[in-house]
């Protein structure tokens, strides 16, 4: 009976929900708890997707759920143009101590990552009185018209939607695995440095040939490419970007929509390079599934904007902010970053062990990432569409995984609260799925 009802609902959704929204399954989800998702037809799945890095603290974390429930009974919508509300003020108090630089002391809350990216661009253009934006090849910043114009991970996000936002230029991202392949050398620290230096040289050339510093408001990048393949930028590259920005009066915008809030083992990935952003973009894990995003910058920049030029009807929703406050408390009291380190090492070790397997080892080209934001890219010798085949095989065995990028790549984004036993189970299922897909 439940399976029939689920099938009926899925068919209704297929008929009436816009086709532009892609789905990796046709499940109708009934519940989520911790690291697990339950479908209406009675099946249970270990979730290594986290709603694309959103439910960092697991599904329906009791403290986050309680905070949202209590706020719903007080006030749901307190419009930001009319006054402050306590959850937003409290959230700022919680965020200030964990910002990657003390200069990031002023906040704007919005609803989604795309809105936050657009807010960052508006701030940069207004503050510098310059129009151009430089983004990274492989970067993803959203699906709105402006953010799709900035996205370079896949053409699907912009194809057919032109004309796009003008004044956007792309520079190479230091993709070390492909750099090593192009040079016919194994990955190493010296090759990493060379990759970073070449990417910085390409950026300097862009500033001489395509977008003069006098016309360039900001450089925008994810410190770990998300949709582009879970590729981390080296500290050498990020520090080089900071130097170029300082040299030319360009703002450095760090997009931590997916990599923020503990995902990479530190509160924000940029901390690991000890680099100061001029503007920090955040979303996803901030409220564990409630719609909330934002930017942080220094007061001197933010206060240049005319009152009324930023924000929106639902920006900084009270329930979402209350959930975010609870998330901040959980991060501090439940040892989340310690668990990320331990489970990240466990995941990397398990994936690396597969590289020594006689049958599937040669199919694995690169394992990379930080914390619990890991990517596995298949080698050029792997069968066509291997990533999609592995994803399906894993699903059939009770594990939810996502592919990413234009290359054959799996991404691993389990909850930051995942247990040692759950991680072991997930790695085992992945190994079985890889072997099955390789044999198909």
TrEMBL record:
Keyword check for Nucleotide-binding: no
Recorded GO MF terms: identical protein binding; pyridoxal phosphate binding; transaminase activity
Keywords: Aminotransferase, Pyridoxal phosphate, Transferase
Coiled coil: none
InterPro entries reported for this sequence: Aminotrans_3, Aminotrans_3_PPA_site, Class-III_PLP-dep_AT, PyrdxlP-dep_Trfase, PyrdxlP-dep_Trfase_major, PyrdxlP-dep_Trfase_small
Cofactor(s) of this protein: pyridoxal 5'-phosphate
Family, as annotated: Belongs to the class-III pyridoxal-phosphate-dependent aminotransferase family.
Designated name of the protein: Uncharacterized protein
């Amino acid at each position: 009976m439940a399976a029939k009802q689920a099938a009926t609902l899925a068919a209704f959704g297929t008929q009436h929900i816009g086709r532009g929204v892609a789905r990796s399954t046709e499940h109708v989800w009934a519940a989520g708890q911790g690291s697990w998702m339950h479908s209406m037809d009675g099946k249970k799945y270990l979730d290594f997707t986290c709603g694309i890095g959103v439910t960092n603290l697991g599904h329906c974390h009791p403290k986050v759920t309680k905070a949202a429930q209590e706020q719903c009974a007080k006030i749901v919508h307190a419009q930001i143009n009319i006054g402050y509300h306590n959850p937003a003020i409290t959230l700022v108090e919680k965020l200030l101590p964990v910002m990657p630089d003390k200069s990031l002391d002023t906040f704007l809350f919005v609803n989604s990552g795309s809105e936050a990216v657009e807010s960052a661009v508006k701030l940069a253009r207004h503050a510098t009185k310059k129009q151009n934006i430089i983004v990274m090849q492989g970067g993803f910043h959203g699906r709105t018209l402006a953010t799709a114009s900035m996205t370079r991970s896949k053409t699907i996000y912009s194809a057919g939607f032109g004309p796009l936002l003008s004044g956007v230029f792309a520079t190479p991202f230091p993709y070390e695995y492909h750099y090593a392949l192009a040079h016919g050398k194994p990955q190493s620290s010296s090759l990493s440095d060379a990759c970073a230096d070449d990417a910085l040289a390409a950026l300097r050339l862009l500033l001489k040939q395509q977008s003069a510093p006098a016309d360039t408001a900001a450089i925008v990048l994810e410190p770990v490419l998300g949709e582009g393949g879970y590729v981390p930028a080296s500290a050498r590259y990020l520090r080089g970007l900071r130097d170029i920005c300082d040299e030319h009066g360009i703002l450095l915008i760090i997009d931590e929509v997916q990599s923020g809030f503990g995902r990479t083992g530190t509160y924000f990935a940029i901390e690991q390079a000890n680099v100061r952003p001029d503007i920090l973009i955040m979303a996803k894990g901030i409220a564990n599934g409630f719609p909330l995003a934002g930017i942080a910058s220094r007061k001197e920049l933010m206060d240049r904007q005319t009152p009324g030029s930023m924000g929106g009807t639902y920006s900084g929703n009270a329930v979402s902010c209350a959930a975010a406050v609870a998330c901040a408390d959980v991060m501090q009291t439940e040892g989340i970053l310690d668990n990320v380190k331990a489970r990240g090492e466990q995941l990397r070790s398990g994936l690396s062990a597969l590289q020594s397997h006689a049958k599937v080892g040669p199919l694995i080209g690169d394992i990379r990432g930080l914390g619990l934001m890991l990517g596995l890219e298949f080698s050029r010798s792997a069968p066509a569409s291997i990533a999609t085949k592995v994803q399906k095989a894993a699903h059939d065995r009770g594990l939810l995984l996502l592919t990413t990028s234009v290359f054959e790549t799996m991404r691993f984004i389990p909850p930051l609260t995942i247990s040692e036993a759950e991680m072991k189970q997930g790695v085992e299922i992945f190994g079985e799925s890889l072997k099955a897909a390789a044999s198909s």
